[in-house]
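[step 3/7] fold_predict: job queued, chain A
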Amino acid sequence: MSWIFLSLIYAVFNAFYTTFNEHRHYNGYVLGIWRGFGVSLLVAPLLLSVPQIDSAPFYAILILQGLMIGVYDSHIFFASAQYGSHSCSGFMATCVLITTFMWWGIDFSELAELLQTPPLIVSIFLCLCGFSAGYWQMMKVKISRQAEEYLYPAVFALALMSIATRFIAIHGGSAYTGVIYYLTVACFTSGVYNTVMFLSTNTSPINQAKERAEADKTPKLTRFQQLKAPLASGHAFWLIIFSTILIASKTLALREAANPGYVIAMLLLSPMIADMIKTKSFPTTPATFVVIFFLSLLLFLVN
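[step 4/7] structure written:
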């Protein structure tokens, strides 16, 4: 049951993460640089408190994870500034289904166990479909084809990241060790990825969209000005702190949950939490209650 509480923490901080650049409009690669290097350097001293892991596949997964984090971070930051946080969050339901079925294909033992109780797996499948449908209705996502195509890599990156995170959390020895290696090695790699992308591109990857017409008329900042902007405003500090908490809670939750998709399902609460923070009131739409009902039923069935 502790993974549910950890997943809830993950969902709360993910609400801040997906809305972070909605009104600030920083360069997405710059935020990825601060997030990656900042988290890694913050936690690096704790490497002295964990045993050294001598496993090439473990480090290979960490590096691969870092690259996927880089892709996911930059896509979310750019898209939230361009299309709004709801557009980004609207794809979470798709990611839940992809992650769940992908894990069943990788770890067939869980699916084989569920298949021994047909009513259970049918119920889980209906819950997945039920809250996904309710979520789409709750979000009322209406975005351009360009936005869809831009966000698809982020959807698959999150699904693969969740599975890789589970591998890191389990094969890192203790839960604490897995978290420390994730926060240092994987996050550092994501910082390197975003640095390379930032230095090799002159414009936003979605800079030519119609929605950016007005923004393109504003004076351009130099690379150094773009890089120091989050630090000068103090936003980089908060991004690093809540990212550290987000990643740690996610890693621990994925270590304990039977299926990574169940943890990602909790992310469906993130847009709801974000709206509650903004409006200081609980959304009372029928779709909201549908999502909560099917999500609660799923958590009951898998525990």
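[step 5/7] annotate
Confidence is low (pLDDT under 50) at residues 208-215.
Residues 56-83 form the longest helix (28 residues).
exit 0
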